[in-house]
Amino acid sequence: MSRKVTKAIFPVAGLGTRFLPATKSVPKEIMTLVDRPLVQYAIDEARAAGITEFIFVTSRGKSALEDYFDHNPILEEELRAKGKDKLLETLDATNMESGAIAYIRQHKALGLGHAVWCARRLIGDEPFAVMLPDDVIAAEKPCLQQMVEAYEETGGNMVATMEVAPERTSAYGILDVAENVGTVVRARGMVEKPKPEEAPSNLAVIGRYIMGPSVLYNLNHMKKGSGGEIQLTDAIAEDIGNGVPVFGYRFKGQRFDCGSKAGFLQATVSFALARDDLRDDLTRYLNDIVATSKAAQ
Ligand code: UTP
User: Fold this and answer.
1) Which end of the chain has the least Cβ crowding within 10 Å, N or C?
2) pTM more than 0.85
């Protein structure tokens, strides 16, 4: 099997309950860090890694996501008439070529593993990436690109991994490490959301994966796992038992958990501070509120 990765699945069919009431009508992936929706960061990262086919697993109420990738002829005409070329360029970068993007429905939120399985007919017999747009990773070289380069050497299955505080293991898939060779870690097992006292390590799986089609075969007969959901972690772990290696890749970069309110706010501040047009005002504001709160103490 070739190790060239050109397809990516974006599972975005979750309910986004941590952001209710906003997510009652706005898909979580459309929420913006400064002025770009979360999904745009994921698409840009995928493109940088050489992805040319983008498969979204969506659900009821996600039509704003489909509209986002469409041309908006009325808006474009207005901007053209007003000579707003810079804004036109900004819009242009969000358009997808015809046929590059596909939408599949997950009819019931049965879990991440089930969402990925819903896209099986569009994958065929080749490796593919899975990207969770609510994990936003700021990195000099985009995270998926780092992984695609490493995957060309290793093959097998690869998951992005990072160390988390030992008391936080129950929020993540956790690697059972067989061999730790610097950036790449070979796993002998994976456990979804273990209690800290049962966790085999504190190396957590983050929302970037490169997998072979065998994981999709495993999902054909998957049963409910942790939290009563069909877990992607379980299907990847099954591959280890079948002799397909699974590697954790310690990416270089800073990951923000934009599926949580605290992570989303931290990402907003961090991305705003990275912008020339916002840095000075925001820094002044942050310094002021820190000084005021210190004075009040
Ligand atoms: P989360 O665990 O963050 O769940 O899913 P969620 O529904 O998005 O958010 P909360 O926890 O209710 O606030 C991780 C990723 O898996 C997708 C989600 O859309 C998100 O990108 N997912 C999860 C699905 O596509 N389908 C599912 O059945 C579950």
Assistant:
1) C
2) yes
